[in-house]
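Hi everyone,

Forwarding the result from last night's run.
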Amino acid sequence: MKKTASTPKRAPAKDVDAYLASAPKELQAVLENLRESIKAAAPQAEELISYQIPTYKYHGPLVHFVARELLQFHRGEQNGFGKIQKRACRL
């Protein structure tokens, strides 16, 4: 079986700043805007790296996002955007 070259993996980021800096250049502005939107909607949320991706917690997981060649957002079923807005209003 022939091996194919894989894309090099980046080292895990220690914080969200490092994660954004290591993201593809064409996504950095989009991700920074997303980060600022999350921080504006939930200013008391804790920002951290969990499972090697940016994560925001406020009384439990609030939102996570991932930088890929094709930008994808992941949110758990129990933590949908409507709940983010509701939680942000209670802050």
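The chain has a mean pLDDT of 78.

Cheers,
N.
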